[in-house]
Structure formats: C-alpha cells, structure tokens
Amino acid sequence: xxxxxxxxxxxxxxxxxxxxxxxxxxxxxxxxxxxxxxxxxxxxxxxxxxxxxxxxxxxxx
Length: 61
Known about the structure:
- It is a single chain.
- The chain has one domain.
- The protein is about 55% helix and about 0% strand.
- It is globular.
- It has helices at about 1-20, 40-45, 55-60.
- The chain has three helices and no strands.
- The relative contact order is 0.15.
C-alpha cells in the first residue's frame, strides 16, 4: 500500500538525485532504466530547472 508507494517514490528520487550530482551544465546524459521508473524520472526532469527531456526514439531507429 502506502509504504510500498513511498519506497518506490524514494527510490526514483534517489536515482534522480544521483543524476543531478553527476550531470554538469551542457552535458548530455543517457539514462536507461525499466519502464516502471519512467513516470517519476520524467516528472523530476520536467520539473527541475536546467534539465531537458529528449525522447530517445529518434536516435534509436
């Protein structure tokens, strides 16, 4: 229930926090995680100044 959801949110927040630690201004970073992480990682990227989400489909075809 609620504890599992909170743990899942926390896991994704930690993943994104690590990304913010390693990414420098002007960097391009490819993040590969399972689809279960996509919603929260997209949310964090779209709501954090200095980050821009680029969908990989055009690059992977």
